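Justification of resources, computational component.

The compute hours requested in this renewal are based largely on the per-chain cost of generating structure records like the one below. Each record pairs the submitted sequence with a full C-alpha cell output. That output is archived, and it is also reused by downstream analysis tasks.
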Amino acid sequence: MLKTEAVLASENPIVPAWPEVILGIVAFLILLFILKKYVVPRFEKAYEERAQKIEGGIERAEKAQAEAEKALSEYKAQLADARSEAAKIRDDARLEAEQIKAELREQAEAESQRIVAQGHAQLQAQKAQIVAELRAEMGRNAVELAGRIVGESLEDEARRRGTVDRFLAELDTAGATNGAGK
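The structure output for this chain reads:
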C-alpha cells in the first residue's frame, strides 16, 4: 500500500496528465475548426442580412419620409390653391350679389316711376273728367240761376254753352292772377 501511496503522492493533482492535455487541445482545435467552418459563416451571414435589412429599412424610411414630405408639400399647395379659389369664388359671389342688388334696385325704381307716372296719368284723367263734370253741372246751375234772376228761359243750348265757357274762362284768369299776385 505504500506503493500506491507513493504513486499518489508523486502525482500532483493540480497538474493534468499530458495525454489529457493533448486530447483536450485536439478536441478544442476540432471545435474551433467546426465553429470557424460552419457556425461563424452562418453568424456572419445572419449579421449581413440584419445589417442589410436595417440599411434597407433606413433607406425605405428615408424614401417614405421624402414621399411624405412631397405629399405634404403637394397637399399644402392644393390647400393654398383651394383657399385662393374659395376667395375668388366669394369675391365673384359678392360682385354678382352687388350687381343683382343694383339691377333689382333699378328695376324697383323703374317700376316705382312707372306706377307713379300711371298714377299721375290716372289723376290727370280723373281731374279732367271731374272738371268736365263740374263745368257741365256748374253751367246748368248757372243757367238755371240766371234764368231765375232774369226771369226768362235760357234754353238755347249754344248760347248757354258760350255763356258758361266765357264765365269759367273769366274765373280761371281771375284765379290765376290772384294766385300769382299772392
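The CA atoms of residues 93 and 99 lie 10 Å apart. Residues 37-181 form one domain.
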